Amino acid sequence: MQDKKTRTGQPPDSIDSAILNAILSARIKPGARLGESQLAELFSVSRTRVREAMMRLEARGIVHVSPKRGWYVHEPSTTEAMQVYAARRIVEVGLLNTMKPLTEPQKQVLRDHLAEEKAAIAEGDRQTLTFLMGDFHIRIAELAGNPILTHILQNLTARTILISMLYQSEFHAIESHEGHCRIAEAIERDDFSAAAALAVQHLDEVETGLDLTLTRDPLADLRQSLSLPSRTPDKPVPGAPIPTTRTTLQLRKG
């Protein structure tokens, strides 16, 4: 696998790349504050450079600015979550249906990637596995030789990971890995229509695993810090994201 720091198509030390890769690896949570001064110090650049990077990420739906408060990692609403998955279906089906047969070295890239997924599952390495699960789809776009679609899938994948951190109660690692294996097998035998159908099935399964019914508790972080009991859930409010990651690594089928 290529170094995670080079997967965004940006210089390894760029602010855009660092933040996007942190999201792709689930190392940064939705709602996290991104201070301009701190980032400027970390990257040894001016706050103007930081602000330019934040504006680029905002245009990609990754961060947003709150007046007089600063920049924050985006917290997708339930409506946006469904829209992102709908967009991924359209992009990935179109990509797979127009792919050309891969060379043997290209097929080996997919095999090696799946081997890395399997190894991460065996090691229980959630952070690496999260990155690999999203990177699988980006790799297919790269192998198809379409940098524009690769860029689009990078954005959609990052937003999908933000969605999973908010709404996915369990992470079925083996189920997702096996879905990738079936897609790769169809690509290897040049059956791209089957690969497209399997990609839709895979995305459907992942979206079905989301819990879009819980409301956001604005005091969740403070409540947890003070060891106070969780708030009794209210009736669902459409479009309201929940505040914290509730994911656990489930190394089982189904």
TrEMBL record:
Which InterPro entries does the record match to this protein? GntR_C, TF_FadR/GntR_C, Tscrpt_reg_HTH_GntR, WH-like_DNA-bd_sf, WH_DNA-bd_sf
Q: Supply the SMART domains for this chain.
A: FCD, HTH_GNTR
Q: Where is the composition biased (Polar residues)?
A: 244-254
PROSITE patterns referenced in this protein's UniProt entry, alphabetically: HTH_GNTR (PS50949)
**The entry's keywords:** DNA-binding, Ribonucleoprotein, Ribosomal protein, Transcription, Transcription regulation
Q: Name one Pfam family in it.
A: FCD
What molecular function terms (GO) are annotated for this protein? DNA binding
Give residue ranges for domain HTH gntR-type: 9-76
Single GO cellular component annotation?
A: ribosome
Signal peptide (residue range): none
Q: Where is this region: Disordered?
A: 225-254
Please identify the protein, giving its name as recorded.
DNA-binding GntR family transcriptional regulator
